[in-house]
Amino acid sequence: MDIFNDHESEVRGYIRSFPKVFDKAVGSEIFDNEGQRYIDFFAGAGTLNYGHNPDVAVDAQIQYLQDRRIAHGLDKATVAKQEFMTSFVEKILEPRNYNYKMQFTGPTGTNCTEAAMKLARQVKGRPNLVAFTNAYHGHTMGALSATGNEAYRDDSYGARGAISFMPFDGFLGDDIDTLHVFRRFLEDSGSGLELPAAVMIETVQGEGGLNVASKDWLQRLAALCKEFDMLLIIDDIQVGNGRTGKFFSFEEACIEPDMVCLSKSIGGGNPMAVLLIKPEVDAWSPGEHTGTFRGNSLAFVAAKELIDKYWSDDKLTHEVKRKSEIIFEALYALQKEFPKLVKDVRGRGLVLGIETDHPDFASEVSAQAFENKLISETCGATGQVNKIFVALTIEDDILKEGLEIFQKSFREVAAKHNITE
């Protein structure tokens, strides 16, 4: 680790939580440079929904490079982009009766949210946007302004302009309808809330603690946006691409947002971001929002193969539901065993977690799990939630092995603190 400790910036993060030199990975297994095997319950923070190096994507990319096809195309028309767009329209949009234009932004999620925020302000001619408590939308300046975590709101970021925060579903407790609060702010000219151009939201707050917006709440939010002439932007960067079961996390709510941000797993492990825009909202002038790497050919190639393989039918959706039940059962078992320690078990699909009411407990569990050869992370405003974030394609035997390691690690940390219930 000396080269990293001596010469890599202090900004490095995950390398501190997982201090090994990793070398190879297949599916849900990672191997370090000494050949030690780890089970992956991290999935690249949502980038590896199909696991590490899925065969169809690897084979297609190797062939593409060997044939000396276009590697860098900006936003020119290429065969790789054409084939991806065709598959996306035929396999994703048309079966759901969605009509969206595709904008290929810079290749990260935060590039996508920046574009959505910029376009919303331009379309509506209003600077203010609404985000929600515990939101996370990226780490560039505009996206950070819509991120709720105090750790990201230091003055040095300069990221506080033209964003108002409203309470997410359940933030004020079960007895208070947070959309009623939002409505009152919109209706009362003395509330201090300038009419927003748009509302941006994650249906499941991946970094914010796995808070889940209910179907009814999302439907009423969409109606509120229409009533007050606000665009609705869904950030599906982490919990889209099948993470909740359906391809889009908002499908079960039967809503059609004005814009959808996609990144992470859409590229099959390659950097890629796509902003879906309703045609009537697509008000860009040519070249008005650019990026040198807004056309990642290898990502197009991988994405096309993965869409064809996994989204030509609903088998993966059913698998997500089945595996979700297996994980819930394991987490509920811990909740039953430690009723005073475990505050909540929550999530949707294969973005699940267990919240504990003990300082630093979750981070200690993550560290202990790593010692036991399981890679997992924490989330939430204070890192109080252990996040179970597996590949959608994880094999049952590896899933169950990983859950046993997680439960063992949880119990070991509880024993360390003399917690018996």
Please tell me the overall pLDDT. Answer: 94
This entry's quaternary arrangement is single chain
End-to-end gap: 39 Å
| Strand residue content | 15-25%
* Beta strands, count: 17
Order of helices and strands: HHEEEHHHEHEHEHEEEHEEEHHEEHEEEH
Q: Give the uncertain stretches in residue-range form.
A: none
By DSSP (H or I, 4+ residues per run), the number of helices equals 13
Folded structure, characterized:
The chain has 421 residues and is α/β, with parallel strands linked by helices. The chain is built from 13 helices and 17 strands. The chain has helices spanning 2-7, 14-17, 43-46, 55-66, 79-93, 109-124, 141-145, 178-187, 215-227, 297-310, 315-337, 361-371, 396-416; strands at 22-26, 29-32, 37-40, 101-104, 129-132, 163-166, 198-201, 204-205, 211-212, 231-235, 259-262, 274-277, 342-348, 351-356, 374-375, 377-379, 385-388. It has a 7-stranded mixed β-sheet. α5 (79-93) packs parallel to α10 (297-310). The radius of gyration is 21 Å and the shape is globular.
Helix/strand layout:
Blueprint: H1 2-7, H2 14-17, E1 22-26, E2 29-32, E3 37-40, H3 43-46, H4 55-66, H5 79-93, E4 101-104, H6 109-124, E5 129-132, H7 141-145, E6 163-166, H8 178-187, E7 198-201, E8 204-205, E9 211-212, H9 215-227, E10 231-235, E11 259-262, E12 274-277, H10 297-310, H11 315-337, E13 342-348, E14 351-356, H12 361-371, E15 374-375, E16 377-379, E17 385-388, H13 396-416
Parallel strand pairs: 3-15, 5-6, 5-7, 7-10, 10-11
Antiparallel strand pairs: 1-2, 2-3, 4-12, 8-9, 11-12, 13-14, 14-17, 16-17
Helix pairs in contact: 4-10, 5-10, 11-13, 12-13
